[in-house]
């Protein structure tokens, strides 16, 4: 079972790390709703007083591949693919009309997920992140 296997709400604790080592912490939530071959994931993270949102529309192509589009008001429209291997999701994405791209790995173990990702502009690292996601009862 992976993060997108079931309708659920997840609370998140994240750290974003800049190339100079500066760490910003965030709290958030990810609400996943499955309806047939379409999955909606409305997520947000709050950094102090700053709120960042990502609204994903995910289409199941096969049990091992999902395609997604995410609207992030701060960055733009992200498009990418989720490659599924049992309890692990490997994500690769690009942000339209920019030279930004990135990846994320989401590993589920029971009622928790660990995520690790990075965002780049061309070859330059913008930031990395990690998060602990805990499923609400």
Number of helices: 0
What fraction, in percent, of the residue positions are helical?
Answer: under 10%
Structural class: mainly beta
**Percent of sequence in beta strands:** over 45%
Sum up the overall morphology in one term. globular
Indicate the multimeric state.
single chain
**Average pLDDT level:** 96
Task: State the end-to-end CA separation.
Answer: 17 Å
Uncertain residue segments: none
Would you count the extended β strands for me? Answer: 10
Q: Record the strand order, biggest sheet.
A: 1-2-3-4-5-6-7-8-9-10
Characterize the largest beta sheet: strand count, sense, and whether it forms a barrel: 10 strands, antiparallel, barrel
Radius of gyration from the CA trace?
14 Å
Order of helices and strands: EEEEEEEEEE
What's this, in brief?
With 137 residues, the chain is mainly β.
Description:
The protein is mainly beta. It has strands at 8-17, 23-35, 38-47, 50-62, 65-72, 76-85, 88-95, 100-109, 112-121, 124-135. Helices cover 0% and strands 76% of the residues. A ten-stranded antiparallel β-barrel has the order 1-2-3-4-5-6-7-8-9-10. The mean pLDDT is 96.
Question: What labels would you give this structure?
Answer:
about 140 residues, mainly beta, ten-stranded antiparallel barrel, 10 strands, globular
């Amino acid at each position: 079972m992976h993060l997108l296997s079931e309708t659920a709400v997840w609370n998140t604790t994240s750290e974003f790390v800049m190339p100079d080592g500066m760490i910003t912490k965030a709290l958030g939530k990810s609400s996943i709703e499955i309806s047939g071959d379409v999955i909606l994931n409305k997520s947000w993270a709050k950094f102090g007083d700053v709120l960042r949102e990502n609204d994903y529309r995910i289409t199941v192509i096969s049990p091992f591949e999902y395609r997604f589009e995410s609207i992030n008001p701060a960055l733009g429209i992200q498009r990418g693919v989720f490659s599924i291997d049992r309890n692990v999701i490997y994500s690769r994405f690009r942000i339209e009309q920019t030279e930004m791209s990135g990846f994320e790995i989401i590993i589920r173990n029971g009622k928790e997920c660990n995520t690790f990702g990075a965002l780049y502009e061309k070859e330059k690292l913008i930031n990395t992140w990690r998060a602990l996601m805990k499923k609400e009862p």
